[in-house]
Every structure is written in structure tokens, then in C-alpha cells.
Amino acid sequence: MELQFDVNLKPYNTLGLDVRANYFVDINNIEDLHLAREFCQHKQCPWLLIGGGSNLVLTQSFDGLVMFMAMDQVFWPAEQPVAQRPEQFIVSAQAGYEWDLLVEESIVRGASGLENLSLIPGQVGAAPIQNIGAYGVELKHCLDSVQVFDFDTGESFQLLLADCHLGYRDSVFKRHQSWIITQVKLLLSREHKPKISYGIIADRVTSLSGQPASSASAQQIRDAVIHIRRSKLPDPNKIPNVGSFFKNPIVNIEQMQKLVERWPGIVVYAVDENNHKLAAGWLIDQLGWKGFRQGDVGIHEHQALVLVCSGECTGKEVLDLAKRIKADVAVNFGVTLEVEPRLFDSRGEFYL
Ligand SMILES: Cc1cc2nc3c(=O)[nH]c(=O)nc-3n(C[C@H](O)[C@H](O)[C@H](O)COP(=O)(O)OP(=O)(O)OC[C@H]3O[C@@H](n4cnc5c(N)ncnc54)[C@H](O)[C@@H]3O)c2cc1C
What we know:
By secondary structure, this protein is α+β, with helices and mostly antiparallel strands. The protein has helices spanning 30-43, 99-108, 199-209, 218-232, 253-262, 280-286, 315-333, and strands spanning 4-8, 20-27, 47-50, 56-58, 62-69, 74-75, 88-94, 133-134, 137-138, 143-150, 156-160, 179-189, 241-244, 250-252, 268-270, 275-278, 293-294, 297-299, 306-309, 342-344, 349-350. The chain folds into three domains: 4-69, Uridine Diphospho-n-acetylenolpyruvylglucosamine Reductase, domain 2; 75-149 and 162-232, Uridine Diphospho-n-acetylenolpyruvylglucosamine Reductase, domain 3, CATH 3.30.465; 241-350, Alpha-Beta Complex (Uridine Diphospho-n-acetylenolpyruvylglucosamine Reductase, domain 1). The longest helix is centred in the C-terminal third of the chain and has 19 residues, at 315-333.
């Protein structure tokens, strides 16, 4: 374990926030985690694990040890199908492997299941934390199990899908913050069935390939998803951001009916017979925030859900803007927005 001191975290978070870590280390194996744990116990300092940094807001310099997840091996199955279940394809990747690289490689190897989740930034190990999802697919649809290192006890163990309690942008890991995911096993399929319930995917596949979406290959779905995402979402390498800043709020049927009466154009999706999900981006857009700019922070001009930064913005500016939007939505729609990225100050996580 190679310990570094007073390290700039700007390259480690996609908002480009210019904060520092007292101590910093790359985690290359489980032994490094044990050593990092001993170090934090000895120093009695807090710790924070960072992956791709695309779902966190570092509002202050960190007064402890920041660990960068650098375990990045991937274990592809042998080319021969598994005897009992020839249609299945199991791949294991260490936490630090790049998510989108795994998606790309799985398709090249003839495995289907991840294509709708193309181009989501970040690492494999972070994918279960908020059960990443896009275009009608969530990680829970293909997760088999994860390997966990408990930073409190130093023990390693496996969790099966059911134990991860994956929900909408949620999992058991948000309630067990000492659990570090070290490896993820995914259950993919050799038989491709295109998932095109999101109308925009079907339209884009057809416009790009000229073929009906129902017969699209996994690669064609991936191409369509990438095309849509590039046209809608800012590239964090060019415009610093953390993707959607707020979760889509879930309301009960009475609230939903009142909102629809008052705002006939409101975008609503049924979750189950009692609950409905509102498009947070629509709410924010209605209040005129799209394209708003104040100093070095603002709202993306095409995507009301995405807060953007210029090179010099601070975590405080990001939080102040988020609070203003949250308050505006609460006053006008009676709906409480929840922040999607994780928020950290000098000692650890906090909530808005
Ligand atoms: C342009 C853009 C588009 C996005 N689109 C989507 C989308 O479509 N769908 C979606 O779901 N998300 C999306 N996101 C959010 C983000 O990419 C995902 O949440 C991603 O999984 C975060 O991965 P990361 O490695 O960057 O995590 P980080 O930002 O590094 O970490 C996020 C949190 O997870 C914790 N964490 C990270 N790795 C581990 C680990 N191995 N074990 C335990 N805890 C860990 C961190 O401590 C932190 O609390 C988008 C982000 C951007 C910038």
C-alpha cells in the first residue's frame, strides 16, 4: 500500500470539485484494504472509497483517508457453455473495472443483458450501490452476487442478489456504509431478447439500422442507447456533472391524481397499483430552471435534471443551487425531491 499525503481530488470526481484528501491510497487487492483499515484505526480518522467519482459531491476537503478502488480484473467464462444451462453466461469483475467497458466486452463475447445500461459512467463496484438503471433495465435484472469487504470488521463475505435489496436507486449498501464491494458476478444470457419497452429505444434502433427493433441485436440496442445518451446528457469530461441530481419522486395515487388535475401535462409512470413515479426533470423544467446559470454552477440547457459546473465551482455552490430547486419544487408541487448523488463533507456522508 503506497500512502500519499494531501492529494488533490479534482481528477477523482466528475464535478471537478477542487478539494483535497489528507491521506490517499490506491486499493489494488484485499490486502490493501486490510492495511488501509489498520491505518484508519491507528489514526482514528474517517475513510471514503471512491470509484469513478460520477455519483458523489465532495463539498469539502476530506479529513481522513480516501481510497481509490483500483482492483480491475475481469474473469470471462470459458467459451464452452455451462453444461446444465447452456443459455447462461456468468462474468465476474472486480470492483474497479470500468462499467461501460464491461458492457462493451460482454456484447462482443455474445452475452446479452447489459446493453440498455451502456455508457453509464463509473465502476462495476458502484453499480449495485444505487442499482444503476436506464431505459427499462436495472442492475437487479442481471446481478447474481457480490463479494463484500466489511471495513469495520475486516471480514469478507458474499451477498446473493436477494440479500442486496436492490430498489429504485437504492440497495442494502446505502444502509451498511462499512461494506465495500470488491467483486461483482453478473448473470447474462447467450440468447438475446431485445428490451425495447422504452419507446425511444425502439424508434432510435429503427432510425439507425433501418430494422424493426424487435429483431435488434444487443450491439444495435447499445448503439441506440449511446446515440440517445450522447444527444441528451452532457459528457462529464467536457461539462462537469454527476448525471441526474435528483431521484424521480414517488407519490401515492391521491397525490398523483391531484397533481394531474392541476398540471395535465405532468409526466407520470405507474410503479404499482398504489404508487406513481413523477419525472423530476419535468417538475424542474416547468419552474423554468433549465439553462439557469449562477456563477460557476447551473442547470444544463437541454436536461433540467442535470446540475453542471464550470472548472472553478465549489461544493457549496452546487448545494445552494440544489437547495433552491428542492424548495421551489416543494412550494409549487408539494413534492419532496431527494438528491441522487452521495454528499460528503470533511468527515463523511451527509444528507440534504
Ligand atoms: C453523465 C452521467 C450519466 C449518468 N447516468 C446514469 C444512469 O443512466 N443511471 C444510473 O443509475 N446512474 C447514472 N449516473 C450516475 C453514476 O454514473 C452511477 O451511479 C455509477 O454507478 C457511479 O459509479 P462510480 O464508480 O462513479 O461511483 P462513485 O461516484 O465513485 O461512488 C458513488 C458512491 O458509491 C460508493 N462506492 C463506490 N464504489 C464502491 C464500492 N466498490 N463499494 C462500496 N461503495 C462504493 C462511494 O463511496 C459513493 O458513496 C450517471 C452519471 C453521470 C455523470
